[in-house]
From TrEMBL:
Lineage top rank: taxon: Bacteria
Keywords: Oxidoreductase
Molecular function in Gene Ontology: oxidoreductase activity
InterPro entries: NAD(P)-bd_dom_sf (IPR036291), SDR_fam (IPR002347)
SUPFAM superfamilies documented for this protein: NAD(P)-binding Rossmann-fold domains
Name the record gives this protein: SDR family NAD(P)-dependent oxidoreductase
Record keyword Nucleotide-binding present: no
E.C. no: 1.-.-.-
Length: 265
């Protein structure tokens, strides 16, 4: 059984992709009296269900149907908030090669959502936070949901791994330069989480986490001020080892494993 989440210090929180999986679990873990949650997702009905559950826990909730690929709509959503302590850029999609060439449309969709979509909310949030008075020395925080896949170029999920690597490296490098403005950026790199995104995978997924456990670990890492929040450690260690293997050996190993389905989800 997972430990209950530790109290977090933020009262104004925005989460993208909050309709299911980790995003919904993060919203519920943050919900409590005195907290204002700004939740967005593409699926209006599932988002409404998450918002209702958060209201039952005492949070004030503003919900917005949003496709983060749309820069103007994403900026308008961020700018509509009176103040913001924490943005969790969680919205993302995945898709594999199915053992063949990854379709160009899928590659574009993954990068547009997982990279451009993250920046479409993170950059306006940083601009907004920079003008806020600091709380405990920090004006605001942005957490981007990457993956342990950022550390290994898996041939069966090329676009997904590359997109998660891009935002992980952007977040960590930007955190180092934005601290002088009182801003913090966190790269969250989870292992396998039991969500609709992973339910289609036919390959082994060791050390699978429940969304609630992943949400607790994520928020605890942000609260502790960690730039890179990678968990669970065995999956993170395996990804680092796999990423260090010679490319030919990595390709040979990948050829023996079942491929992730092609369709992005």
């Amino acid at each position: 059984m997972s430990a209950p989440p530790a109290a977090h210090p933020w009262t104004r929180i925005a989460i993208t992709g909050a309709s299911s999986g980790l995003g919904a679990a993060l919203a519920l873990a943050c919900a409590r009296p005195g907290v204002v949650l700004h939740l967005s997702a593409r699926n209006r009905d599932r988002l409404a269900a998450t918002a209702a559950a958060c209201r039952e826990q005492g949070a004030a909730v503003q919900e917005q149907q949003l496709d983060v690929r749309h820069a103007g709509a994403s900026r308008a959503w961020i700018e509509s908030m009176p103040g913001l302590d924490l943005l969790i850029a969680n919205a993302g999609i995945s898709g594999g090669t199915g053992g063949a060439t990854e379709p160009p449309a899928q590659i574009r969709a993954i990068f547009e959502t997982n990279v451009t979509g993250v920046l479409n909310t993170a950059l306006p949030a940083l601009e907004r936070m920079a003008g806020q008075p600091p709380r405990n020395g920090v004006r605001g925080r942005v957490a981007v949901i990457s993956s342990v896949a950022a550390f290994v170029a898996a041939p069966g999920a090329a676009a997904y791994c590359a997109s998660k690597s891009a935002i992980q490296r952007w977040a960590e490098a930007t955190d180092a330069t934005e601290r002088h403005r009182g801003l913090r950026i966190h790269a969250v790199c989870p292992g396998y989480i039991r969500t609709p995104m992973t339910s289609v995978n036919a390959f082994p997924m060791p050390f699978m986490l429940e969304p609630e456990d992943a949400a607790r670990r994520t928020l605890d890492g942000i609260r502790r001020g960690r730039t890179r929040i990678a968990y669970p450690w065995p999956t993170y260690a395996m990804a680092r080892v796999a990423g260090a293997l010679p490319l030919g050996l990595r390709a040979a190993v990948a050829a023996r494993l079942p491929s992730k389905p092609v369709a992005a989800s």
